[in-house]
Each structure stands twice: as C-alpha cells, then as structure tokens.
Write a structure and sequence with these properties.
about 625 residues; mainly beta; eight-stranded antiparallel sheet; about 5% helix
C-alpha cells in the first residue's frame, strides 16, 4: 500500500523566512517516504546454504496520478551501494586516479566504488559518495552502469555538499546518449578543472570531453564552467557569457563529442547571478552545506512535478535550493544531439537520445573543496515504462572446463508493475573471449551471431503486456581449449523506450570434478521493484553442472524467506514441496541419475510482501545433495 504524505508550506513575506522554509521543505521530501521496496540482487545462487541478499530501500511518496516506478534510489549512505553492479568508475581524462569513494566504508579495495578510508570517515547511514577531498588536483566520478529511457521523461533529485576548502572547482551531473542496443556508460570522464569532467576543448586541462555528452549541469563554486574558454569548437555563445570566471553559479552545457560542442545552454549568470551559495568554504561542514537539486527531462507534453515545478514540453528544468537563498529554476529547450551521436540512438523528430546514461563528477585544481553527493532518486515523469527482469544462466553451475560445450539460457519477463512494451525488443549478448557462440534460438525470437555477439529480435505480437514471461533463448557455445580464469558474460534486453534489463553470468574455468556439481539461480516476477502488500513470485532453477559427474542422489532445495515475505505456495515438476512457517523445502522426485549438464525443472514460490516491510530483505536459499561438491554459482 502506498502511503501518501503531504507537506504544506506557508511562505511569509519576509524573504529570510521563505528561504528557511524552502530548505526545510526539500529536506522533508527526503524524510517522508512511502514504504516502497526495491530489490537489487536477484541472481546469486549457491550449492550449499548461502544468503541471496536483496537490498531494499524507501523512496519518495508519489500521488496516485504519478508513476510509482523508481528507476533508482541510491542514498550513498551505507558502506556499500544498494546494488553494486549498477555502478562503474570511469577512467579519468588524465589517466590518473579516480578519487570517488564511499565515506561510510573502510574497505578501500571494495568494488566498484571503494571505501574512502580505514577507519571509515563516516558511519552508516550517514555516509556519502565523495567525489573529491579538500586536496588539490583531484578528479573523481561515477556512472550508472546502464541507461534509462527518456521517452517517459525523467525526474531526478539529489543533495550536493561543497565545503571545507578554498572553493573549487565544483560538482557536475551529466547525461550522455547511449546505444539502445548496447546501453553502456561513458568509459572516460572529460577533463577536470573548469571542464568539471564534461566539456572538451583547449582550455587547460585540455582534451576530449565526456563521450556522447548530452547535458552537463555544473554546480560550480569556482566559476569556469560558464567561462566561454571552456567551450568545445563550433559554439555560438549566448550574450550573457564571456571568457571570464563566474563564481558560484549553476550552468548547463549541451551535447558534444571529443573537442567539439559542449556549448553553453543556460546559467544563473543570465538571471543576475545565483541568489545564495552552493558551498560554505573553509569554515563549512557537511552539516551546514547541503544544497538540494532537482533535474527534469521532458521530451513530450507540458508537465508539473509533485514538487509543483512546471516543465514545458521538449524542455529541461533544473531547480536548486542554494544556501541562504530561495529556490531558483533554470529551463531550456532539450538540445538536438544529431551532430554528435548516431542517428539510431536518437528520436528522429527531436534528436533526443532514446536512452540516457548518467553520473556525477567532481574536481579540484589549485583550489579545492570536499565534493559529496547523497540521496539520489530517479523516476519517470509520466507513465511507468516497460520494465524487464532478465536472468542469464549456464548449464555448468558457472564451473567451465576448457574444451567443453556450454549452454546459456536467457529468460526475460516484463514486470507486472511496469508498463507494456509496444516497440521492437531485442536481446543482445556479447560473450567473453574464450567462449565462442555457435547457435542461438528461442520461440518468437529471430537470432543471429556475429563474432562473439548474439543478437535476437522479438517476433511475437506487440504490445507485450506487463507481467508477460517471454520465451527463453538458448545459446550454445564452445569453451576454448586455452581458456582459463574468469569468463564473465553480460547480456541485455533492450528497446528504445524500455528500462534496460541487464543480467550477468560469472563463470570460472576449473578442472573436471569427480563429484556432482550443483548450481542454483533465483529470479522474481517484478524485476526487483516492490510495494508493500504486493504479491511476489520467485522462480528457482537448479542445474547439475557439466564440469562434474552425474548426480545419483536426489537433490534438496531449501529457501528460508525473510519475515517481510510470507510464502503461500511452492511447486515444481519433479519436486515435492512443503512450507513450514517461513521455510520452503522441496525434494527432487524425478528419475536418477541426473546427467551432468542437465537443467532441473524450476520451482515457483508464491508469496506476499508485508504491509509493514521496510529495509533489507535477505532470502536464503540452497540446493544440495548428499554427494555434491559445494560450489557457488556467482
């Protein structure tokens, strides 16, 4: 059940009071949240009992007229990300160290974003994403590992903190175009300093800008992001701009590639300057430095956000709540990126990318500040787009033997709480070097192979309704005789207007085993995005790995659901299942022995999310037998 909180603000005439209330208002938007639950880790499996951790977070309450789906809710406040596989650390333009880290973690070797220090700088849940410290010449940034669709608009919010130094350079949020059939983030940030990791050009430090850059929104304390010297080539600058420093301003740059483009779009400079401050300088602390921001991308009709911000059709809006000043809003027409990005990536009528990658950067130079981010939330502006859950599982329990044949099975389903999909839908899987695909097929899929990449186009009826389980795709491949180490395979289900689905199969080359090897994968029917009191269906699929011998003893399956999920039924062909309180136990009743390389019939577990569920969900499941080796399917 969605809980709705309404925060009414009464503004008084005195501007000082207006500013205080405006800041309190935005903070409350982070405090009053409905009990929405998002699971993130859905494809961990095991042979012996091992937890399948499902992270769960809250999100801002939305009215019944607003879409309920969250693309992302990442507070950055804990020692690890809600879903680590959702994030990457791009390389820096200079080739130096990317300084981004999590202040609540003491694990300086953790991936993808390490802890900042041992001992930790902060304690959970008070941590932050730290882009830079208050040291000179640092460059830090993170990017979302995939992309989100622009077609239903984007409404995103986050808190910035700039303090503790001499006032430089700033924080940048970027949007970049992504290939809808291979939606990857930029691999390298743009130059640091006044470029803020976005624009390319000849101003020092010179170099190529952010790959496929679409919009760069700079919260610029030092002031060079609005300086025309930091343009790429080919810009016709607005009348308010010049080759000078504009300190403490919010500035927006448009599309660019290499050293071309990244032109000035809008800035608080044009409105007489920012009223208030983006940072607190050498005397400031994190506690006194929060500056909230909201960014809205609207590729269709006029809209009003739940915060009451009006957004014109085909436009962007940036709202900021500076220290000591009222909310201020920048708006402009969404730029056409056709001069810088592939036509296949763009809406042909508007030049707006179908899929947008995003992330944050921060940099220091001869002056510095701490640059922190917290409380990132992203949701569609209009209707819930199609959202897909995808699993990718091999028949060898991720234990490959060099020279053997392996079969991957990809299974996708449209989440029941997303929208339907009416556009062309594709499956894309680029297999790792050392695993060569030989065939790919599936009912209602037309598949082809080009080198290491499998491409399948959906040929079934459109639209595909929410909640639909798509036919599975089978990929047969040969493991090279020389293969060794890790062989990680990442696949996508994509459409121009879809929330991109990504799944990964992480395998290791091992010596043949003289014992049976068992593996397990678990998925859910909601693509990892749950509400309180909502029904949930888990599907567990076991395998007898090809790297081992045949299984002569009957396997057993056990799944102890957390207290926030109540199981109601469990069943599967060739399985006899029972439920005792929170635990599902199933015994295999099929024929024995089970040949190596066999995928077992799936087990379906139906349940209900508690009306009071909140926080983390850890679902512990296992498949085992009396003689199987204990291998973890990653």
């Amino acid at each position: 059940m969605t809980m709705k909180y309404t925060v009414r603000l009464f503004f008084v005439i005195v501007q000082q009071m207006f500013c205080v209330i405006a800041q309190i208002w935005f903070k409350l938007l982070h405090v009053f949240r409905h009990r929405r639950i998002t699971t993130f880790l859905i494809c961990i499996a095991m042979v012996a009992a091992e937890s399948i951790s499902i992270s769960v977070v809250t999100s801002t309450a939305y009215s019944s007229t607003q879409p309920t789906l969250l693309y992302l809710n990442e507070p950055f406040s804990s020692s690890q990300l809600q879903k680590p596989s959702d994030w990457v650390k791009p390389a820096t333009s200079s080739g130096g160290v990317n300084s981004a880290c999590l202040t609540a973690s003491s694990d300086t070797s953790q991936v993808p974003i390490p802890g900042c220090n041992n001992p930790a700088v902060a304690t959970s849940p008070n941590g932050s994403l730290e882009l830079t410290t208050n040291s000179n010449y640092e460059d830090g940034g993170v990017a979302y590992a995939s992309a989100i669709p622009s077609t239903e608009g984007i409404d995103l919010r986050f808190d910035t903190y700039q303090y503790g130094g001499t006032g430089a350079d700033g924080i940048l949020f970027f949007l970049a175009g992504a290939n809808p059939k291979d939606p990857l983030p930029p691999s390298t940030l743009g130059p640091a300093g006044g470029h803020l990791g976005y624009s390319g050009g000849t101003a020092g430090p010179s170099g190529n800008g952010l790959q496929n850059g679409y919009l760069g929104i700079g919260f610029d304390v030092y002031g060079n992001f609005a300086n025309t010297s930091y343009d790429g080539s080919g810009c016709q600058d607005p009348t308010w701009s010049s080759s000078t420093q504009y300190s403490n301003e919010v500035t927006i740059r448009g599309p660019g590639s290499n050293e071309s483009g990244y032109c000035l779009e809008a800035s608080t400079v044009a409105n007489g300057g920012l009223h208030g401050s983006l940072g607190t300088g050498s005397t400031g602390t994190k506690a006194t430095s929060m500056v909230p921001a909201e960014i809205i991308i609207n590729p269709t009709s006029q809209a009003t956000t739940e915060n009451g911000i009006n957004v014109d059709a085909y436009s962007y809006t940036v709202a900021v709540w500076p220290l000591g000043g009222p909310k201020q809003v920048l708006s402009g027409t969404l730029p056409n990126a056709s001069s810088y990005e592939s036509a296949a990536w763009l809406n042909p009528q508007t030049g707006i990318p179908y899929q947008l990658a995003f992330g944050f950067t921060g940099s220091t130079g001869g002056s510095n500040d701490y640059h922190l981010i917290q409380n990132l939330q992203i949701k569609p502006l209009f209707s819930n787009p199609a959202r897909v859950g995808l699993t990718l599982q091999d028949d060898s329990a991720s234990q490959f033997v060099a020279g053997d044949t392996v079969t991957y099975t990809a299974s996708a389903a449209l989440a029941s709480n997303g929208g339907s999909e009416s556009e062309a839908t594709s499956f894309v899987d680029t297999l790792p070097t050392g695993v060569t695909p030989s065939s790919a097929s599936g009912t209602n899929w037309s598949c082809g192979i080009s080198s290491q990449t499998v491409n399948c186009s959906y040929t079934g009826s459109l639209p595909i309704s929410a909640g639909t389980q798509l036919p599975s795709i089978s990929i047969t491949a040969q493991v090279a005789n020389s293969a060794s180490g890790s062989l990680d395979n990442k696949a996508f289900v994509v459409a121009n207007d879809m929330v991109v689905a990504m799944a990964q199969d992480n395998a290791t080359v091992v010596s043949p085993s003289s014992s049976p090897l068992l593996g397990l994968s678990i998925t859910d029917n909601l693509a990892g995005d749950y509400n309180q009191s909502e029904s949930i269906s888990y599907t567990a699929t076991g395998v007898v790995a090809q790297a081992g011998i045949a299984e002569g003893d009957a396997p057993s399956f056990a799944d102890t659901l957390p207290t926030s999920v109540t199981p109601s039924s469990a069943s599967g062909t060739n399985w006899s299942c029972g439920i005792s309180s929170q635990t599902v136990n199933c015994s295999y009743t099929g024929s024995l022995p089970i040949s190596a390389g066999t995928t077992l019939d799936s087990i379906t577990i139906e349940g209900t999310i508690s009306s009071s569920a909140y926080g983390g969900i850890a679902n512990s499941a296992s498949i085992s037998s009396s003689n199987a080796s204990r291998w973890l399917l990653k």
